[in-house]
């Protein structure tokens, strides 16, 4: 089944909602407004908000999917803020993101920091609009955990600390995966969970979505690592060959190119199995399967 028409519909819904959410009032300084919208609305895959909407429709219907748009915007705002800050000179010091100059290159470092701060706050403002209030509260808590010191931010901290600590003796793939489960996987997993929660998913459904998200997140990270070695900057939209230059943890570093490809294929297979409880005749289920199945194709 082709994903294009369905995913294009979701993309249009997400883009429209993100645009509306960043029409700030007159008290927002124009330079800050420009930096926020420059980073948030830059061309991207919109993977995480797409996962929110698909999971919501999978566990409910298209009406529930519309109710999930604030949460979809929120996870994309968290993702955008994390990229702005990751690109800063004090962190990864990148100058290209999504095929465009990074926020601190386009504007300046201080503006980039403030744009990221504003996006983080706006994400929770968006989730706070969910109804009923109990759902908004639970969703805020789940998003805060995923974005916080033990998940997204903690994973980035460990990634920075361990970049220069590879010695081949006390570093393992398992340790690296613990970083990626937090730095990359946490936001993917909470995207699926929020979508399910908004649709009123059962506990078995939420568990299945979480298991899928865990495997999907690793498959995504492995292919991203492979793209750093095998991809082209014009296609990927960011600087490549950085991992090897920094002796940074990556799947190709530990497993080699072919070993990393096999690892990605295994994660894809495990992710498919995690969705066994759902009706395979539904379009949302087929879309989730297609998204994960297409990951290895990014590096072929």
Describe the structure.
The protein is mainly alpha-helical and 300 residues long. It has one domain: Farnesyl Diphosphate Synthase (Orthogonal Bundle). Helix content is 70%, strand content 1%. It has helices spanning 4-21, 30-40, 47-59, 62-67, 69-86, 103-106, 109-127, 133-147, 152-162, 173-183, 185-198, 203-230, 233-236, 242-245, 251-274, 283-293, and strands at 96-97, 100-101. A two-stranded antiparallel sheet has the order 1-2. Helix 2 (30-40) packs across helix 7 and helix 3 (47-59) packs parallel to helix 11. The chain is globular, with a radius of gyration of 19 Å. Residues 164-169 have low confidence and may be disordered.
Q: Topology of this protein?
A:
Elements (H helix, E strand, L loop, with lengths): L3 H18 L8 H11 L6 H13 L2 H6 L1 H18 L9 E2 L2 E2 L1 H4 L2 H19 L5 H15 L4 H11 L10 H11 L1 H14 L4 H28 L2 H4 L5 H4 L5 H24 L8 H11 L7
Antiparallel strand pairs: 1-2
Helix pairs in contact: 1-5, 2-7, 3-5, 3-11, 3-16, 5-7, 5-11, 8-11, 9-10, 11-12, 12-15
What structural keywords apply?
single chain, 300 residues, mainly alpha, Farnesyl Diphosphate Synthase, two-stranded antiparallel sheet, 16 helices, 1% strand, globular
What is the number of E strands? 2
Can you tell me the overall shape?
globular
What is the second-level CATH architecture? Orthogonal Bundle
Which segments are poorly predicted (pLDDT under 50) over 5 or more consecutive residues? 164-169
Overall radius of gyration:
19 Å
Put simply, the count of helices is: 16
> Which secondary-structure class do the elements indicate?
mainly alpha
Note the gap between the termini.
20 Å
Number of domains: 1
CATH topology: Farnesyl Diphosphate Synthase
CATH class equals Mainly Alpha
Work out the strand percent: under 5%
- Summarize the helix and strand pattern as letters: HHHHHEEHHHHHHHHHHH
């Amino acid at each position: 089944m082709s994903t294009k028409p369905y995913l294009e519909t979701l993309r249009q819904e997400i883009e429209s909602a993100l645009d509306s959410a960043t029409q700030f009032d007159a008290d927002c300084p124009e330079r800050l407004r420009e930096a926020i919208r420059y980073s948030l609305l830059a061309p991207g895959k919109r993977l995480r908000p797409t996962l929110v909407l698909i999971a919501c429709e999978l566990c409910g219907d298209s009406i529930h999917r519309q109710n999930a748009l604030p949460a979809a915007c929120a996870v994309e705002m968290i993702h955008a803020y994390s990229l702005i800050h990751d690109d800063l000179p004090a962190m990864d010091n990148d100058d290209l993101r999504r095929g465009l100059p990074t926020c601190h290159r386009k504007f300046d470092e201080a503006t980039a920091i403030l744009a990221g701060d504003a996006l983080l706050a706006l994400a929770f403002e968006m989730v706070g609009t969910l109804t009923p209030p109990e759902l908004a509260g639970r969703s805020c808590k789940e998003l805060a955990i995923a974005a916080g010191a033990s998940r997204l931010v903690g994973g980035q901290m460990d990634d920075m600390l361990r970049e220069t600590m590879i010695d081949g003796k006390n570093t393992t793939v398992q340790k690296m995966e613990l970083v990626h489960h937090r730095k990359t996987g946490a936001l993917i997993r909470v995207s699926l969970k929020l979508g399910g929660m908004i649709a009123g998913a059962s506990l078995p459904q939420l568990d299945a979505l979480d298991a899928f998200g865990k495997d999907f997140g690793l498959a995504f990270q492995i292919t991203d690592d492979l793209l750093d070695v095998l991809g082209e900057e014009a296609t990927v939209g960011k600087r490549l060959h950085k991992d090897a230059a920094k002796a940074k943890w990556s799947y190709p570093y530990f497993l080699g190119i072919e070993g990393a490809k096999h690892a990605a294929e295994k994660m894809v297979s495990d992710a498919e199995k995690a969705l066994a409880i759902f009706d395979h005749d539904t379009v949302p289920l087929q879309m989730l399967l297609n998204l994960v199945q297409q990951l290895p194709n990014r590096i072929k």
